[in-house]
Amino acid sequence: MNLVSQLLKPANVLLGLEAGSKKRLFELAGQALQSTEGVPANEVFESLFSREKLGSTALGHGIAIPHGRIKGLKETACAFVRMKTPIDFDAPDNLPVDLLFILLAPAAASDLHLQILAELAQMFSEKEMRDRLRAAPDAESLSTLIREWTP
């Protein structure tokens, strides 16, 4: 079992999202997480956008892991997004991003936040996993892939 499987709710697997920019993506993610997690959408946007200004969270190969901390958040919250059309994310390989894992941690988060980021980087470094995530027909299949992945 991986750390992510305990956090990712099926309702937070978003497929076919259409956003022309990082800003728009963060707005849409904020709206989605507000409805499923009760986190104010503007706080999600501000947290992700502020972190992104420090440097791109894109890893390459069409993958990004936007993340941030939010005051008042009780537990780590996350969402997986598969874009309909890839967007520019200032990736190190200059490829647009179509797969994103958004991670929000409480302001006083422990090392768990860093462990999750490391696990995600490991998951997304596997070409076969990236291919399977892109080919999954629906949110349930995608959730199962993530849940069953082992580090």
Report on this model:
By secondary structure, this protein is of the alpha/beta class. The chain contains 5 helices and 6 strands, in the order E-H-H-E-E-E-E-E-H-H-H. The mean pLDDT is 93. It comes from Parasulfuritortus cantonensis. One of its GO terms (molecular function) is protein-N(PI)-phosphohistidine-sugar phosphotransferase activity.
Topology (SSEs and partners):
Layout: E1 13-17, H1 22-37, H2 41-54, E2 58-60, E3 63-64, E4 67-70, E5 77-87, E6 97-106, H3 112-124, H4 127-135, H5 139-148
Parallel strand pairs: 1-5, 3-6, 4-6
Antiparallel strand pairs: 2-3, 5-6
Helix pairs in contact: 1-2
GO biological process, one term: phosphoenolpyruvate-dependent sugar phosphotransferase system
InterPro entries: PTrfase/Anion_transptr, PTS_EIIA_type-2_dom, PTS_Nitro_regul, PTS_SugarTrans_NitroReg
Domain PTS EIIA type-2: 6-149
